[in-house]
Amino acid sequence: MQRAFWGLIAILASAVMFVLALPPADLAPFGFFCFTPILVAFRGKGFAWGFFAGVAALILGALVCWGGWLYTPSLMNATPDWNFAAFGLFGIVVGLSCAIIGEIKNPPSWLPWALAAWAVLFESLLLVYIPAHIALTQYRMFPAMKLASIGGIWAVSYVVWLLNFLLAQGYVARNKKAMATCGAFLGLYFGLNAFTGFPRAGELKVAMLQTETQVLDVLAVYNKDATGNGAKIVVWPELAGQASAPFGNTDQLRELAALPDQAAFVTSFEDGNELMPYNAAAIFSNEGESERYRKRKLFGGEGNYHLRGTKPASAKVGGITYGLNICFDSCFPLIMRDTAMLDDVSIVLLPTLDPIGPYGTVQAFHAAYTPFRAAEMGVPIVRTDTTAYSMVVDSRGVIVAQMGSGFEGVLVAEVTPERRDTLYRRLGDWFLILCGFIVVAGLIKGRTAAPRREPSSLKKRRK
């Protein structure tokens, strides 16, 4: 009975710490040890109990998000469907990690390194439906962005998973040296973050227009306001232009952009036949309409009513080459990398329309990908959502400006269009491949290693 009680406490502790580490709570330190309680409590308890603990912690985390006890009040109406979908899928990753620990009573010293690689590989499989990464707990940490520019979001996930496994193993083994090493790393990591990664003055004024409206007259007023505040380009939300561009006819949008008091703007609309159009984005300016980009990653059931695009696109307006992406594209590093690899792209514009999650959680989770994508590609991103957490991120992955949950209106910020060379942009998902080699090496070592001898102290206790 006592063991069951402490097991439940461990599940609750892991659930709460994980939610606190994620946006919008943004308590990043918890990410490095949020799963340590269940890894400790269910070590050696068997595969089934370990799997149950991991899944239960994530389902409980979704319930905590739904309840909103850890967040400031929000007036937004929302449903928790996508919270439970995302937490449930990620719970499988956590559950299988705990299940492996549950099967091993005396884990070897190399096991955390292999398990962290395995967890990252399993994260990559979630790209099939809803991407989820433990790295999202670190989206505001500048050292994490530097690491992402080298190995992508995968390298950040690996480090966060590794600390969870090392701390759990160190605690069980009472290995003070290992625990102290982990503590020193965290001290250095957060110490560096405190003195680095500050926003810099930019050369280009951009604006985010956060609104659910599709009424062109209202959008024009907002766009004019942004223009009056110096914005050279305004990012409208995804499908904000749908009502003004029936069957892809953008005459109304082009007429608006030609007015002298209107800055250039980008939004998306349905492009093509009535039954199965594309979700397309274009920049509208006094130079006309740019080449259209067709959304390549369709979210949820969107594939039932939109066709999928097949190639990246960019547009040059006012001497600056902008890359174009739409919403769910930003969850896929290689899709965004394709855009950044286009000639002369120095900033990416990202119209977005997120499901409304409880307390803005779903929007916050999606927005957290933006700094990673900017750091990986080495180019700034201007992301605008309909309801929450629109943001401008510079080429280093540093958030320059952000709009809150439930706010409607315009925010102007400055960012420098540029192309920073990054290892990730050159090599792509090389770190993911490395994780595959680490897992294979771990499996080989596990099969060939001699059986571990039971400590003499345990033998005496049994006698």
Could you explain the architecture of this structure?
The protein is α/β, with parallel strands linked by helices. It has two domains: 2-197 and 431-462; 204-425, 4-Layer Sandwich (Nitrilase/N-carbamoyl-D-aminoacid amidohydrolase), CATH 3.60.110. Helices cover 46% and strands 14% of the residues. It contains 15 helices and 13 strands. Strands 1, 2, 3, 4, 5, 6 and 13 form a seven-stranded mixed sheet that branches. α10 (333-340) links the parallel β8 (320-324) and β9 (345-351). α3 packs antiparallel against α4 (81-103). The longest helix is centred in the middle third of the chain and has 31 residues, at 142-172. It is elongated and about 70 Å long. The mean pLDDT is 93.
Return the domain count. Answer: 2
Q: Averaging pLDDT over every residue, what do you get?
A: 93
Please tell me what the overall shape is. Answer: elongated
Task: Return the string of H and E elements.
Answer: HHHHHHHEHEHEEEEEEHEHHEEEEHHH
Distance between the termini: 26 Å
> How is the main sheet built?
7 strands, mixed
The number of helical segments is 15
Number of strands: 13
**Helices and strands: which structural class?**
alpha/beta
Ranges with pLDDT <50 over ≥5 residues?
none
Radius of gyration: 24 Å
User: Helical residue percent?
Assistant: 40-55%
Q: Strand percentage, roughly?
A: 5-15%
